[in-house]
Amino acid sequence: MVPREMDAQRALELLHMTVFSQSVSPCGKYLAAGNNYGEIAIFSLSAALSSEAKEESKKPVVSFTAHDGPVYAMVSTERQLLSSGNGELRAWNWSDIVKKGCKEAWSRRPPYRSSLEVPEINSLQLNPKDNSILLAGGDCAVHAMDLESGTFTHEFRGHSDYVHCLALRDQSQECLSGSEDGTVRMWDLRTGAQVHLIEVHKYEECSRPQHGKWIRCLATDCDWMVCGGGPALTLWHLRSVTPTTVFPLPHCQQHVMFYQDLILSAGHSPAINHLQISGEVRAQIPCTPRSVHSLCVNEHSPEHKVLTAAGSSHKVDVFTNFSYRAFSLCFA
Amino acid sequence: MGAVTDDEVIRKRLLIDGDGAGDDRRINLLVKSFIKWCNSGSQEEGYSQYQRMLSTLSQCEFSMGKTLLVYDMNLREMENYEKIYKDIENSIAAAHEKIAECKKQILQAKRIRKNRQEYDALAKVIQHHPDRHETLKQLEALGKELQHLSHIKENVEDKLELRRKQFHVLLSTIHELQQTLENDEKLSEAEESQETHMEAETKQ
Question: What is the span of the domain harbouring residue B80?
Answer without folding.
Answer: 20-127
